[in-house]
């Protein structure tokens, strides 16, 4: 049986977060374009998408916090003093 490299949980977490960010980017794009379409066609008044934009901001802020936490976790431990 061939030697397989060890499974790195941190690398898997980065890939999972990358998939979540890509998915959220697509959802954000569709929601934003849908909102603009509804405003330009006159179905919704200007400012009707404020709730959607607030939710998108909150989700991106949480993903940024998760990304920063993973980056901090990926740093190597400092060398011991002594």
Uncertain residue ranges:
none
Anisotropy-based shape: elongated
Number of strands: 0
Order of helices and strands: HH
Number of helices: 2
- Distance, first to last CA: 43 Å
**Helix/strand-derived class?**
mainly alpha
Helix content: 55-70%
The whole-angstrom Rg is 20 Å
Largest sheet: none
Kindly estimate the percentage of residues that lie in beta strands according to DSSP: under 5%
Round the mean pLDDT to the nearest integer and report it: 81
Task: Give descriptors for this structure.
82 residues, mainly alpha, 2 helices
Molecular structure report:
- The protein has two helices and no strands.
- The protein is an all-alpha fold and 82 residues long.
- It has a domain at 47-71.
- Helix 1 (9-40) runs antiparallel to helix 2 (50-74).
- The chain is elongated.
- The N and C termini lie far apart (43 Å).
- The mean pLDDT is 81.
Short description:
This protein is an all-alpha fold. It has a domain at 47-71.
List the helices and strands and how they pair.
Layout: H1 9-40, H2 50-74
């Amino acid at each position: 049986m061939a030697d397989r490299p060890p499974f790195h949980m941190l690398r898997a977490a980065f890939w999972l977060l990358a998939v979540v960010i890509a998915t959220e980017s697509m959802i954000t794009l569709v929601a934003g374009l849908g909102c603009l379409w509804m405003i330009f066609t006159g179905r919704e008044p200007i400012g009707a998408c404020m709730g959607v934009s607030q939710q998108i901001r909150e989700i991106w802020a949480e993903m940024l916090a998760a990304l920063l936490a993973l980056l901090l976790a990926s740093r190597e431990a400092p060398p011991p003093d002594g």
